[in-house]
Design brief:
- By secondary structure, this protein is an alpha/beta fold.
- The protein folds into 2 domains: 196 residues, Rossmann fold (3-Layer(aba) Sandwich); 117 residues, no CATH class.
- Strands 1, 2, 3 and 4 form a 4-stranded parallel β-sheet that branches. A two-stranded parallel sheet has the order 5-8. Strands 6-7 form a two-stranded antiparallel sheet.
- Strand 1, helix 1 and strand 2 form a beta-alpha-beta unit.
- The radius of gyration is 23 Å and the shape is globular.
- 31% of the residues are buried.
Length: 326
């Protein structure tokens, strides 16, 4: 029986790959998950574990499931092996804008689980719209000696023989099974499987709310890829409001009343949603000159109250319209 280790977050991309593997006969799949409690790159670990706990029984019950899917192994930092060479390599490359901070931890997982599948998809819709044919990670690695050879199903065979030694240490233990597949290409495949019901339980949102927000980068990527039906009503509403604000920017009189100056109203709305539909202050009054601290404080309180009312009313009005109340 073929054994496959997969880094599974309970998100869209890694769940797509897990579903692929589940439909293969003679395969044993070991899902692996790393989480770091507290402040970390993965702030949604509780939501991701919840998604995993919901998804796995449903996937095992699917009629097309042939593979043996083992229970996820969940690791924290204390479970990772020590490697001075790895730490030194990460220290050298961590300043690169294309080096994910979480690789400092995730990159050690292949030491425990060889050929660990890292489910990075192909170039996002936004990147393709900008004229790029390759994703940022692939471009970065190819610039430093990695070579990828794609199979028809999108699996990327990686050749690291000529790669930068430190980057090979950081990235070389992974395999990339969906690097040649875009999120748009996944949707018709999921529908052909009849797995739409399952994918509603994946967690891809950047924020830690009870439901996907509909306005963060990940939610917008999935939305633009034709995944509208996979979002809850609240996320659909939020997305529509954000699009409305982008196309119909508020007038100057309203901006003056809200005390927001040149700040993007869509940014403020996204921030409001991400904080559980609460407007929060981002300026520490103690960092401004002491003489004007009382003025800044009072202005922030007024701005916060007015923005809160403005966004609350906007959401309420939108819900009323959707329900046919007005």
């Amino acid at each position: 029986m073929k054994h496959v280790n997969i880094l599974w977050t309970g998100g869209w991309d890694s769940t797509f790959r897990l579903c692929q593997l589940s439909r293969m006969d003679g395969v044993e799949v070991q899902p692996v998950y790393f989480y770091k409690e507290g402040v970390s790159d993965r702030t949604n670990w509780k939501k991701e574990i919840q998604a995993q706990n919901t998804l796995l029984p449903l996937l095992r019950q699917k009629e097309a499931t042939k593979a043996c899917i083992l229970n996820p192994i969940r690791l924290t930092e204390k479970d990772l092996p020590q490697s001075k060479n790895f730490d030194q390599a990460f220290e050298k490359w961590k300043s690169s804008p294309l080096m994910p901070g979480q690789l400092h931890f995730l990159g050690k997982l292949p030491m425990l689980f060889p050929k660990l599948e890292y489910c990075i998809e192909g170039p996002t819709l936004k990147r393709r719209q900008q004229g790029f044919k390759l994703g940022k990670t692939q471009v970065f690695l190819e610039e430093h000696g990695f070579r990828f050879h794609f199979r028809p199903d999108g699996y990327a065979d990686m050749d690291a023989s000529q790669a930068d030694p430190e980057l090979k240490l950081l990235w070389g233990g992974f395999t990339f099974p969906i690097l040649g597949i875009t999120e748009m290409a996944m949707v018709p495949i999921i529908r052909s499987w009849g797995y739409e019901d399952l994918f509603k339980y994946t967690w891809t949102c950047d924020y830690g709310g009870e439901e996907p927000c509909g306005v963060c980068h990940n939610c917008e990527t999935k939305w633009a890829s034709g995944m509208l039906n996979f979002f809850p009503p609240s996320a659909i509403r939020n997305h529509k409001i954000k699009r409305y604000l982008e196309k119909n920017d508020i007038d100057q009189a309203t901006r003056d009343f809200l005390l927001i100056g040149p700040t993007s109203i869509t940014y403020l709305f996204t921030d409001y949603v991400s904080n559980g539909y609460q407007v929060v202050n981002h300026i520490n009054v103690l960092t401004v000159p002491r003489a004007i601290q009382p003025v800044v404080y009072e202005r922030q309180l007024l701005q916060k109250a007015r923005l809160q009312t403005f966004f609350d009313n906007l959401v309420q009005q939108w819900d009323s319209q959707e329900q046919g109340v007005v």
